Amino acid sequence: MATFDVIVIGGGPGGYVCAIRAAQLGLTAAVVERDKLGGVCVNVGCIPSKALLHSAYVANLVNHDAKDFGVEVGGVTLNFGTAMKHSRQVADQNSKGVEFLMKKNKITVIKGEGTLVPGRKVKVGTETHSATKAVVIATGTRVKGIPQIGLEINKTTVISSDEALFLEQAPKTLAIVGAGAVGTEFADIFNAFGAKVTLIEALPRMLPVEDADSSAAIARSFKKRGIDVLVGAKVKSATVGNAGVTLEVESGGKTQIIEVEKVLMAAGRALNTQNLGLEAAGVQLDQRGFVKVGPDLRTTADGVYCIGDVAGPPMLAHKGSREGLVVAETIAGKKPHAIRYDNVPSVTYCHPEVASIGLTEDQCKEKKLDYVVGKFALTANGRARATNETEGFVKIIKDKKYGEILGAHIVASHASEMIHELAVARENEYTVEEVDLAIHAHPTLSEAVAEAALDSLGRMIHA
Amino acid sequence: MATFDVIVIGGGPGGYVCAIRAAQLGLTAAVVERDKLGGVCVNVGCIPSKALLHSAYVANLVNHDAKDFGVEVGGVTLNFGTAMKHSRQVADQNSKGVEFLMKKNKITVIKGEGTLVPGRKVKVGTETHSATKAVVIATGTRVKGIPQIGLEINKTTVISSDEALFLEQAPKTLAIVGAGAVGTEFADIFNAFGAKVTLIEALPRMLPVEDADSSAAIARSFKKRGIDVLVGAKVKSATVGNAGVTLEVESGGKTQIIEVEKVLMAAGRALNTQNLGLEAAGVQLDQRGFVKVGPDLRTTADGVYCIGDVAGPPMLAHKGSREGLVVAETIAGKKPHAIRYDNVPSVTYCHPEVASIGLTEDQCKEKKLDYVVGKFALTANGRARATNETEGFVKIIKDKKYGEILGAHIVASHASEMIHELAVARENEYTVEEVDLAIHAHPTLSEAVAEAALDSLGRMIHA
Q1: Using an 8 Å Cβ cutoff, are B206 and B354 in contact?
Q2: Which helix (H) or strand (E) holds B392?
Q3: Which of B 15-54 lie inside 8 A of A, CB atoms?
Q4: Which residues of A314-337 are buried (b: 16+ CB within 10 A; e: fewer)?
Q5: For A339, which DSSP code?
Q6: Measured between alpha carbons, how far is A314 from A57 in angstroms, rounded to an integer?
């Protein structure tokens, strides 16, 4: 039994960042973690998947493009096991990095399952710890299957990202259920490593939360690479065997039978709100199952805050981290800037990458906004041509009257980095004129951002 | 003999962009070009060099890193001729792109050498054309040797970038004189293609206009790759033969003899101000040889403007293009925003890339500014770890009192894209707080920008 100013339940990117900021502000902090520090993000999410995606990039480069660039290779052997090992090393290195940060900031790490006890207390095993100021719930999410149609995760033939990240070899055939960011990234990875991939999405297009133009660009790119993308598709039944799975999938009015070695479930995640003692402690959930929070992320229980995935969408590591910072500052008596939830960037790290911020064009239509679209295709960008990465575009949607940036959508080899000038611009309410005013270096992909801004003003130069 | 509203002499990135903007604003425009449209940048500069740098990246990836990522290759053969051909294709495609833009915007292209004739006239061959509104000088620069020490460009053993971009094979041994952006980029390229490269810089460090930390990071990286970097080095004599060159180089108090197959001259460029009829037309030069211009880029002759390299430093394509836009708007009677010459980004596209904006730390010291440095090393960045590209850092120098961004320096695999959020922020006079306020996507290299901003505020999270 120990006493801290702040106890955080969950050592993911929301929780550990919250603890660090609390420590910086002079508070004593503890993080309760039942598994590895860094949570899903560091161990079975963002980080290892990006390492595998780079392996996929290298595989495609060597197999398809290297020769054009003057690099001729003999036989190419793809070894998913090696790629996986590299990815595990990176994940472990990052988890150790979080451990180091905890020590450096004198944060106590308590291993085990944390349960909330009324009165700002957290029970871990037989010990109950007290928080003088606040308890922060940051328990995140976990993978889930769809038992209703027989696709319960069995970790062998029906797997989740948790298992996919540890495979010793790529399956020969793979169906991925769900074409959001996770499903799309794994389709990219396993296709590059030789699997015949079928990507199945219930909604009418892949990457359904992205702009329709982004979805279309990636669907086109995936089809070119031989990935089967089935949209508006319903898995009607699944027969799970020891060596494979047979799916009955209805799409476009036709029903087809898909036989695969493995099925990867990527259709949403389950919230970790069970066995946390929430109800007893007076922490209420909303209708969708998220913890009910006010604008300052306070729950319905006094002195209990909630951040990250369990506090509501978007379920993104960087949104959780920012909530962690803000909550730590609130607990320390500061008045942090309110989080602009409408300005959280979203990235899918397939090739080319998809990055976005703000509204999609469809959302602008639904909201009946008076908007103008500026768009520049990478086929006209010198840097993209130099590296043979001309798939993609930059699309900026601006308010017709005031020039405000309503949304921005980028498909490009380095979209994940390019989106940030628009994130900064949008956060500070600059217009497209102010984005263009900054001279963009030549030759860069980011010049396409300036050109899209100019296009929305009717004065694009290079197309 | 024809009459236009505007005649631009020089079809490089300053000139052709000026003509397009003039045409957009309803003016008739002509561009006089003696060689290929797009100028040095498109044909023998920025664009083909970036294609070769990508070849170098691919070569190093395949030779060194691919295996770690699970991509094993048999024998690797590097073919510089193929890389060169790809690079030429990209350059030609971009030059044709400029041709297309000229047609689309109904701009007349006049092939030949343009000479200024008093009274807003330009003579090309036997024809003299008139401009009702303005003549714009955009003639740029050309390569130069150092004849004083016997290093006159002979195009075989003593070459410039003009020839280096057309080599059928990489030399076995190469000395590069000048370690600015051009010399550094070619060192990267030819090292990757197997040449033993010696990079010779007269000033005390390579990339002398960049921040000292950037120079040190690249010098370290180059040494690791076996590139000999000699700084504070003076070429005392050169013996040029048919099959090679012998250089006597003094550096660090020692004189050494360097025998190489070729010498690549990359120590500055010569201004194209000769045979232009400038004096007769009343266009004066300044003491350094640049065309004398006022803040709106007017020369000393009525109705004659000057943009790009000949109008003064920095000699960068994007600075010339912006001047082209601004001059076209001025000619059309608009009042464009003044160019902030202190906010022109600079990029060297070696691996990792170097990008910067604003003041270096040494410049801040010279100016006796009260500053704080925020710095974040990529060794602690998850995305950099995932791709094994942890060389580098983000460094932000902020004014101690007001938080204004005085300068920013990035060494990273995609520094060229990352610099733009700081370009936009700095152009619009936002502080480090406002950069951090924008949530950065995880995991991206750009998170290091946010961390450097936080570090300058004393509250870095991930290190």
Answers
A1: no
A2: none
A3: 17, 20-21, 24, 41-42, 46-48, 50-51, 53-54
A4: ebbbbbbbbbbbbbbbbbbeeebe
A5: P
A6: 27
All residues at 6 or more sequence positions from A444 whose CB lies less than 8 Å from its CB, including other chains = A383, B347, B416, B417, B420
Neighbours of B298 (CB within 10 A): 17
Cα–Cα distance measured from residue A141 to residue A316, given in angstroms and rounded to the nearest whole number? 11
Residue B1 banded pLDDT, cuts 50, 70, 90: confident
For residue B293 the two structure tokens come to 């211009």
User: Which two tokens mark A420?
Assistant: 């940030």
Residues of A assigned a catalytic role: 442
**Inter-chain residue contact B419 with A441, CB threshold 8 Å:** yes
- Name residue, tokens 């290091």: B448
The amino acid that residue A361 corresponds to is E
Mean pLDDT of the region B422-448: 96
> What sections of B225-341 are H helices per DSSP?
278-281, 317-331
Best of A64, A424, A440 to disrupt the B interface (most B CBs within 10 Å) is A424
Q: Name the residue of chain B whose CA is nearest to A435's CA.
A: B424
Q: How far is B130 from chain A (nearest CA, A)?
A: 25
Residue B121: band (very low, low, confident or very high) from pLDDT cuts 50, 70, 90: very high
- In chain A, the percentage of residues whose pLDDT exceeds 90 is 98
CA distance A166 to chain B (A): 14
pLDDT on residue A238? 96
CA B353 to chain centre: 12
Distance CA A427, CA A420 (A): 10
Ordered structural domains, chain A, with CATH = 3-142+270-341 (3.50.50.60), 147-267 (3.50.50.60), 352-456 (3.30.390.30)
For the residues B361-366, what does the mean pLDDT come to? 98
The amino acid that residue B402 corresponds to is: Y
How far away is chain B from the Cα of A315, in angstroms, using its nearest Cα? Answer: 12
Q: Which two tokens stand for residue A377?
A: 């295709």
A442·B55 Cβ contact <8 A: no
The pLDDT of residue A96 is 97
Note the pLDDT of residue A214. 98
The pLDDT of residue A1 is 81
Cα separation, A440 vs B218, whole angstroms: 23
Q: In sequence order, which ranges of A332-414 are alpha helices (DSSP H)?
A: 361-366, 382-386
Output the six-digit token pair for A291. Answer: 């913890």
Six token digits for residue A411: 């498909």
Q: Residues 294 to 323 of A: which have CB under 8 A from any B CB?
A: 316-319, 321-322
User: What six digits make up the tokens of B276?
Assistant: 């232009």
Catalytic, B442? Answer yes
Mutation site for A-interface testing, chosen from B413, B420, B426, B446 by largest number of A Cβ within 10 Å: B420
Interface test with A, best of B58, B193, B342 (most A CBs within 10 A): B58
Question: pLDDT tens-digit profile of A192-226?
Answer: 999 999 999 999 999 999 999 999 999 999 999 99
- Exposure b/e, A128-157, CB count within 10 A at least 16 = b: ebebebbbbbbbbbebbbbeeeebebeeeb
pTM: predicted TM-score of the whole model, two decimal places: 0.97
- CA–CA distance, B163 with A404 (Å, rounded to integer): 47
Q: Which of B416, B14, B271 is nearest to A417 (CA)?
A: B416
Residue range B339-353: mean pLDDT, rounded: 98
Q: Is A442 on the interface with B (CB under 8 A)?
A: yes
* pLDDT tens profile B62-117: 999 999 999 999 999 999 999 999 999 999 999 999 999 999 999 999 999 999 99
pLDDT digits (tens, 9 = 90+) for A92-103: 999 999 999 999
